[in-house]
Design goal:
By secondary structure, this protein is α+β, with helices and mostly antiparallel strands. Helices cover 43% and strands 25% of the residues. The chain has nine helices and 19 strands. Helix 1 (11-56) runs antiparallel to helix 6, helix 1 runs parallel beside helix 8 (372-405) and helix 8 (372-405) packs antiparallel against helix 9.
Length: 441
């Protein structure tokens, strides 16, 4: 059942906050303007860098032997990335040979609080806000502290048996024919797949012991459940040494023992009593690995490895794509990514400029909200004006930036911005004429 909280903000407090909003609005307006300018420069420089790289790369068709003629050149090559490294997760003593990456993903089954708020202006300028809190159980990437939940019925309901971190282990030596991938390229490598795991009995036994102790303490001692998350047992060190501590050699009976809280299935370690029916406090730990795979790279050859290519404008470039990709496909994808980032930042910048302007003038409707309908009308009108001015201002900034890099497009954008300003001014003038005529009649 939903829980509601009603708060009231006085007229004086709202006015005071609006004065603070003016300062915040100015900062937001200036910062978003700077971001729009920077984004256009970034987009053009990235495009020119990619065009430079497209003109200067060479195909490296055979990577099985080192060829001095490629030294210092930007190359495109496709080959199998392999390794002889063995990776291991020390906490659970789980490893995999010839693996480029070993990943441990940890999830906790927790109560999660969601909220939605609605506000209503009151005569006299005060504001009444009603916040509705709802709760649901879901898997999360970290434990949720329920001590601050608003609904008393849910406060302290979360706990976990044990805390672990998600981890990614990477091979240090990854071969690419006769060459080696650098750390950045290894970081970009992604060929995730599941594999069957086996959990060391000593580790499973120690986790089982911790889970039982937590379960007993929360029931026998009537301890508030949330306190468990701060207890020493719950936050015990999770490295392999701690988990194996206080364990003895397995007896034949122990070898056949069944665990109540620790379950292993495929590539998942489940900590909890019922894997098919999750309960609050349960933990799901999923292991995956990245095995050798064919990759395509664009990078500069430096000795027996690769570094980023430096374009004429100073920007650095290198790329690694999974699978077999031609240079044309990789460059097309890079141009597409640059375009997506550019438009995302443009739209974000425009929205922030408009938000900044609205925050600057917010004091006006706030003062008039002594009569709610008057404040709302003013707020809507100023919101429309700020939107038009903000859009026009953003186009002007973008156009000026483009004038520096691409004059023709800059002139077109300036013309569009000028048209918006002209239409706004014409609309205001028509309103004034209409008001004058009405008064005369």
């Amino acid at each position: 059942m939903a829980y509601q909280e009603v708060t009231r903000t006085s007229y004086g407090t709202r006015v005071k906050n609006s004065f603070g909003g003016i300062f915040i609005g100015i900062i937001l307006f200036l910062a978003s303007t700077a971001m729009l300018w920077w984004n256009e420069g970034r987009a053009v420089k990235t495009t020119k860098m990619l065009q430079d790289a497209e003109k200067n790369y060479v195909e490296m068709e055979n990577v099985d032997t080192k060829n001095p003629e490629f030294e210092g050149k930007l190359v495109h090559a496709v080959a199998l990335a392999t390794t002889t490294d063995s990776l291991s997760d020390a906490t659970f003593n789980i490893g995999s040979a010839n693996t480029i990456k070993l990943r441990r993903k940890v999830e906790y089954f927790q109560w999660v609080e969601d909220s939605q708020s609605t506000s209503k202006d009151k005569i006299g300028g005060a504001k009444e806000t009603t916040t509705t809190y709802t709760y649901k159980k879901k898997w999360t990437s970290s434990p949720v502290d329920s001590r601050d939940f608003k609904d008393p019925d849910y406060v302290g309901k979360n706990f976990v048996y044990q805390t672990f971190d998600s981890e990614v282990y990477s091979a240090e030596d990854v071969a690419f024919g006769a060459y080696r991938l650098n750390k950045s390229q290894i970081s970009s490598f992604s060929n995730e797949s599941s594999f069957n795991i086996t959990l060391d009995k000593d580790i499973a036994r120690q986790i089982e012991k911790l889970c039982k102790n937590v379960h007993i303490s929360t029931q026998k001692n009537d301890m508030p459940i949330q306190q468990a998350i701060d207890s020493a047992a719950l936050k015990a060190t999770t490295d392999s040494t701690a988990l194996k501590a206080a364990t003895s050699e397995q007896t034949p009976a122990q070898a056949e023992e069944e665990f109540k809280y620790v379950h292993v299935s495929g590539n998942v370690i489940y900590i909890g009593q019922h894997p098919n029916m999750p309960e609050v406090g349960d933990i799901r730990i999923t292991f995956t690995r990245d095995m050798p795979s064919k990759v395509s790279i664009l990078a500069k050859v430096t000795g027996d490895t690769f570094t980023s290519y430096k374009a004429k404008n100073g920007k650095m470039f290198s790329a690694l794509y999974m699978g077999e990709n031609s240079a044309e496909e990789m460059f097309e994808s890079e141009h597409s990514t640059n375009s997506i980032i550019t438009w995302f930042l443009r739209i974000l910048g425009v929205m922030l400029v408009i938000s900044g302007l609205k925050s600057i003038v917010s004091i006006v409707p706030t003062l008039l909200k002594v009569l709610p309908f008057l404040g709302q009308i003013t707020e809507s009108a100023l919101g429309l004006i700020c939107s038009v001015i903000g859009l026009a201002w953003s186009l002007i900034i973008i156009a000026i930036a483009w004038l520096r890099y691409r004059p023709i497009l800059g002139i077109v954008l300036l013309a569009i911005a000028g048209s918006l300003i002209f239409l706004l001014a014409a609309r205001k003038k028509n309103k004034q004429i209409a008001t004058t005529n009405n008064n005369q009649n």
